[in-house]
Amino acid sequence: MVLTKTVCRISCLLIILLVSGCSGITVSQDYSSARELAGLRFYAWSSEQQPRTGDVRVDTLLLDSRIRSAIDNTLAARGYRQADSDHADFLVSYQYSLHQRVRGTSDHASIGFAGRHSFFGFGTGTTISDYNEGLLLIDFLDRTGRTTLWRGKGSRPIATHTEPEKLTHQINEMVHKIIDQFPP
Fold this sequence. Notes:
Blueprint (H helix, E strand, L loop, with lengths): L1 H19 L5 E6 L10 E4 L15 H17 L3 E2 L7 E24 L6 E22 L6 E11 L5 H16 L5
Parallel strand pairs: 2-3, 2-4
Antiparallel strand pairs: 1-6, 4-5, 5-6
């Protein structure tokens, strides 16, 4: 009886660890150490509209509007103000792409016991599947647009068919986590 409870607790712990390690947004950053970034306050967009990528899943005005709105709202919440390009401290641009990825997930874990010889065994099953990963790069450029001052990167699994509200929420969440890294 005690052994069964212990096995059950270990199984539950393994399942929790597996599930918690499979979700979320991964972020990172890169920046120029040659320029002080803390004094930046005013920004402008480097272009009126996002350049085309050739990927019909990404090249939509709806997606462009969602990403720009998320960046504007996140920067405003952090005290940055939008200005015309002549008065901006830095320019903002972004790139968004989708990449097909492959992952293996554990479907189940099993624990077995044998009778007289006290054999103990543990086994797992793994499923291989593909998914789309959204990669968002947000660049803060100098006023000329030639030098990258800071780049934030974020990626997350993206569902192919997502309701507009859910997609907007996912974009807002990713943009927020990326820009949370600024200034470094």
